[in-house]
């Protein structure tokens, strides 16, 4: 696996969560959320970054018509709210729990800055992760604006292979074991779940892929 959200094969949660650090462990607690609970809203004060210990978190915003736009659905070990590190005072998105037992590690911006100041190599890697994440989100939003639903799905499957698959750079079948439900995928590509089912069935009938609940096999001849 070669996920954008990991660097040097290290889970960000394991590296950054303050309960791992002697100076912060005593005063640190985890935050628990149920399904549809909000971690923060748009325009909330941005004074923390967050790491997911378990569960899933949806990141998104509402457009001018009040329609929800999902930017990302994040899973265990992943980082969000990171623009606070870069100096943003308020949130430009919301973060909402997708699971009934989501556990979050909050990290104060000052704590994060201290950790980064004390280790320049670590600081560089954090900024690198943030940069990759912003590029990935920008690309996804461009797909939502300018591509049809089938193209968005194919691009997303390629992204899934990069993040959660193996043999993705080979000439054989590419197998993707991913954490998303069909509802998650539909939200991420900006379509409905029934439309996603139609598209997946079309691709299966075209012998492009086969799919199960948490596994997608992309056949060799579609590469």
From TrEMBL:
Q: Care to name a GO molecular-function term for this sequence?
A: DNA binding
Specify the HTH crp-type domain's residue ranges.
Answer: 147-222
Enumerate the SUPFAM superfamilies for this protein: cAMP-binding domain-like, Winged helix' DNA-binding domain
User: Does this entry carry the keyword Transcription?
Assistant: yes
List the GO cellular component terms.
cytosol
Q: Which residues form the Cyclic nucleotide-binding domain?
A: 12-91
Q: What is this protein called?
A: CRP-like cAMP-binding protein
Q: Which organism is it from?
A: Algibacter lectus
* Taxonomic classification: Bacteria, Pseudomonadati, Bacteroidota, Flavobacteriia, Flavobacteriales
């Amino acid at each position: 696996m070669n996920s954008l959200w990991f660097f040097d094969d290290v889970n960000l949660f394991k590296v950054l969560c303050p309960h791992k650090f002697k100076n912060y462990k005593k005063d640190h607690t985890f935050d628990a959320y149920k399904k549809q609970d909000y971690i923060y809203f748009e325009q909330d004060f941005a004074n923390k970054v967050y790491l997911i210990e378990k569960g899933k978190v949806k990141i998104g915003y509402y457009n001018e018509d009040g329609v929800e736009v999902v930017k990302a659905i994040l899973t265990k070990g992943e980082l969000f709210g990171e623009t606070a590190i870069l100096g943003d005072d308020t949130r430009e998105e919301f973060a909402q729990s997708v699971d009934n037992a989501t556990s979050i590690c909050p990290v104060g911006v000052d704590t994060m800055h201290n950790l980064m100041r004390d280790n320049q190599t670590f600081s560089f890697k954090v900024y690198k992760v943030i940069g990759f994440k912003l590029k990935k989100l920008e690309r996804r939003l461009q797909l939502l604006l300018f591509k049809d639903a089938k193209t968005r799905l194919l691009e997303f499957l390629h992204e899934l292979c990069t993040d959660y698959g193996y043999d993705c750079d080979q000439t054989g079948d590419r197998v993707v074991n991913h954490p998303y439900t069909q509802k998650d995928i539909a939200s991420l590509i900006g379509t409905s779940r029934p439309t996603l089912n139609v598209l997946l069935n079309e691709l299966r009938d075209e012998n492009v892929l086969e799919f199960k609940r948490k596994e997608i096999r992309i056949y060799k001849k579609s590469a």
